[in-house]
Sequence to fold (301 residues):
Amino acid sequence: MKLASLLDPELIEVDLKATLLTGVISSLLDLVAEKQPNFDKKEVLNAVLERETLASTGIGKGFAIPHARTDEVDELVVSIGILQQGLKVKSPDRQPINIFILILTPLSAPSHYLQTLSAVSRFAKMPDSRKKLMNAEDANGVVDIFFDANIEIAKNLLVADILSEDFVTIRPDATLKDAANLFFKYRISGLPVVGEGGYLHGEITDTDLLKFAMPNYQTYLANVAELPETEPLDELLREEDKIAVKKVMTSPMASVDPESSITEVVALMLFKGARRVAVVEDGRLIGIISARDIIDKIVRG
Fold:
C-alpha cells in the first residue's frame, strides 16, 4: 500500500494559524471531527497530548508526527497541517516544526499504525520534503507530493522501522578506561566496538570489565575459600589505561540486518542473552536496538 493512498484532501490544511502545539493538534482534530460521526474530540486530544508528555513526536527536519491509539476512529486516519511560521517543539535537530502529520488508529490495529509511522518517517527524511510541502498551494498539491515520493507501507514491521540511529561507539584501540568513562557518562552498560570504515568488530560491556578484573571468577564461585585477599578491582584499576578494548571485548556482537523481523531481535534477547542488538549492513554498523527501543516504539508507540 502506498502512503499517499491514506491521504484525504479534506483532512489537510496548508495554512495553519495556530501558535501552540495544542492548537495545531486541535485544528487537525477539527478536520477529523467533520468527517467522523460521534467523534469525541476532547478525548482524542487528551490522548494525543498524553503521548506528547511521554516524549516529543518531533522527528527532525521540520516534521512532527503526533499520534494516538483510540477507538474514537474505526480505521487509521492521517491528517496533515502545514505551519509557515514554525513552532519550537523538541526534536533531535532542534529545528522549528512546520509539518505536522497526525495519525490516529483504533486500538485493535497496532501493527499497521507502527508501519505507517515508519513510512511517514521515511518520507520526512527524503531531500526537500519539507520545502515541497511548504510550497504546496492546496491540499491536492500535498497529496500529489506524497504520490510522487512513492513511499510504500511495509506489510510487516522490520528492524529498520525501530532501530536507533543515535548511539555511542568505541574504537578497538581505545582503553578500558575510555570504555568505563563512556559507561559512566552515558549511563549505559555496553558499547559497540567499531573500527575504520564503520565496521563492527564486537561489543564491550560492563560484564567484560568485571571478568577482566576477576578472570578466575568461576573457580572462586566453586570454592569460596580460594577468594583472593586483594580487592578484585585492583588489577582493573592498575591496568585500565593500558589494556585495549579489543583485548577484552566480546566478539561477535549479536546482530541482524535492517530487513530482519522484530521477532528475531526479541529471540536474541531472550534466548541468547543479548542486552542490545547491532543492526549491520554490509558489515557496517547502522543502528542499535535495545529492549527499551522495543518498549518505547512498539508497546508505547
About this structure: Residues 3-154 form a domain with the Mannitol-specific EII; Chain A fold (CATH 3.40.930.10). The chain has two domains: 3-154, 176-299. The radius of gyration is 24 Å.
